[in-house]
Every structure is written in structure tokens, then in C-alpha cells.
Amino acid sequence: MSINFQNTNRLNALANLLSGNVLPVTSDGSELSLLSKLYAISTWIIVLIYTSGCVIAIFRVSKEYALRECTVNLTIVVEVFFNIFHMYHQRDLLKRLIDNYNLLFSMGNDLLKTTVVTYIGPVEKMLKFYAITEVCTVVFWVSKSLVTVFQKEEFVHEDYALPISFSEEPISRNVYIVNVVVEIFGSGYLIFKKVSADIYTLHLILLLTSQYKYMKMKFGMIFRRKDNSSKSRYQSDRVIEKELDSLFRHHSVVVRSTIMLKEILSFNVCVVHLDSVFRFCFLSFMLAMNMTVDIEGCILISYTVAAILQLYIICFYVQELFEMGSILADDAFHEEWYSCELLVRKNFRIMIHANKLKCQLAPCQSVDLSLPSFMQIINQAYSACLLFLKMK
């Protein structure tokens, strides 16, 4: 079976559809049926209603309660709206990138297919855990507001797990229940949109990294098969030259894809980096203020663990993309490429120099996503949390 951008990660396609993000998964845009558009519009309407209620509630609760309960939600809102709408703005470029990926798959062979499938498979399992945990914990956290329905007749904004406001206090029971239902659907779609965007972004990165892994192995295999006997040396060099020409064409498409990916994700990487600092800062603040071993504490810890896992996964695979783009010719360099004809050696040296191009997605290292950046984000979030705790 042939592979393409859409069928290499079923989770990405499913999450993209159910979340209502409808980001491109094919180069022709055929997935955007009328039903998909209507569903996407309805999910955004729900999220906008929910977001407006949350923003209004910030000004109707105490500052301490707003800092503890509203800030994490606000950081998610900022990340979702900035990143997804930026991708909508880059839709044409995304389709061109997907077209390049599909072209690379058509140029490849069984080795490329095996490399892509075995590379993405384990990551997909981790992303399933992340997606289920994030969505379920947020929905459970918001749903706990329903417990107070049978405890009183009138309610205030601080009775909500995540403060939301569409009317003045006191709030009647019926209005309270309706608001909680809106909050459940709104927060569920909001976090699902974030999860889906994260999976989509990571899928773009993984497919590019798998191309570098394939080319690295292919380069080594080409020179490893070289026959140094005088009788077949000429014929062997012709075969190597032919295979290298094919691989150079493959590499040129990968380089174009890398440039496109950087143009698409450079803004998103900066947003995720900065937003993650504030999100983990406020999560740490919530954990410090809710140090109780109960259901609420378990939900909060589960959400935090899943959020840290998500950030680590992205940083790890961005780091791997950076490294794979730097060691592309390493396997081949240790083979007998130097005994080939002059044209082959010249082409290989060109490849070694091209290999020095770094696959860095961010415009600068200070707001990059990599393993050093992961520790930097955690340290900055911890320092900011300590500052808020001292100011409390």
C-alpha cells in the first residue's frame, strides 16, 4: 500500500476532523466538504462563546481566584487562537508542503516506507495518551461544578471550576446548569483544538525527520555496496552515480520542504515557547495552592504530567530534526566514497557542504523548541511561579 501525508498518521487525521480545525491533510483541499466546514464553524462559535464568558469572568471574581483558576485557561486560549489562525493564514503553503511530502513518498521505495512507518508508530501511541489525558482531565475538571447544583439555590461566579460569566450575580440554578454545559463543551473543544494542532505540528516535523533518516541510511548503503575489483569498478561507479543522482533529487525536495516548514512553524515555535513558560508557571501556582490528595488534586497532576509530556515530545523531535539534518552524510563518510571517480567524489563533497545547513525552526535560539529549551522553559516557569507566590 502506498503512503501519503494523510494515512501515515490516522490519529492526526481523526483529531483534525473531530476538533474542527480542518487543517489541510491533502494538497488539493478535497477534505473540506460542506459538512466539515459547517462543523468547524460550529466548534469555533462554541469556543468563542466560551472564551468571551471566561474573559468577562476574570473581572468579576477576586484577583487571587482569577490568578489561580483563570490564568492556565487564558494561556491555552492565546496559544490556540494565535497558532491555528496562523496556520489558516499559511494554508496554501501547507498544501505545497504536503504536496512535497507526497512527492517524496512517490520517489521513495520500501526502505522509505519502512522508515516512516516505524518512526511514526511509537510516537502515535504517546500522542494518544496525551490527547486522551488532556481532554478528559479538562472535561472532568469543569464538570465538577455540577456537584454544587444540589447544594444551594443561588450561585456566584466562583462556584464554577473555571470562572465563566454571562450574567450578574446571583445566578439561578437553571442558568448555572446551562453555563456549566456551555463550559464543558467550550473547554472540551478548546483543549481538543490545542491537542489536534500539537499533533498536526508534530506530524509535519516527524515526516521531515524521517526523510533525513532515510537519506542517511541510503547514503551509507550506496557506498557500502561498492565493488573495488578492477573488472567491475567502472560499472560499480556508474551504479553509484545513478543512485546518487536519484538521492540528490530527493534531497533537493527535502531541502525545499525544510525551508517551507521553517516558514510555517517559526511563528508557532515562538508562541509555544513563550506560552509554555506562563502555562507551567500558572500550573505550578495552582499545584502550590491546591496541595490536597483528592480527586481534584489527581486531575490537576494528571493534566500537568500530560502537558509536560507534550512539550517534551515536541522539544525532543525538534532536537532530533536538528541533529539528523547535521549528520546526513556521516554513514557514507566512513565508507569508501574516496575511491570512486572524480564526479562521484565531487557530488558527495557538495552533499557534505549542503549537510551543514541547520534545520532550526525558530528564528533565534532564545525562543526555540529543543531539549535545552525544554529545561529553559521549566526553569523560567519555576522562577516566575516563585515570584507570584511571594507576591501573594
UniProtKB/TrEMBL annotation:
GO cellular component, one term: plasma membrane
Protein topology in the membrane: Multi-pass membrane protein
Coiled-coil region(s): none
Compartment list: Cell membrane
Keywords tagged on the record: Cell membrane, Membrane, Olfaction, Receptor, Sensory transduction, Transducer, Transmembrane, Transmembrane helix
TM spans (from-to): 38-59, 265-288, 300-318
InterPro entries, per database record: 7tm6_olfct_rcpt
Superkingdom, natural source: Eukaryota
Pfam families referenced in this protein's UniProt entry, alphabetically: 7tm_6
Biological processes, Gene Ontology terms: sensory perception of smell; signal transduction
Family label: Belongs to the insect chemoreceptor superfamily. Heteromeric odorant receptor channel (TC 1.A.69) family.
Entry protein name: Odorant receptor
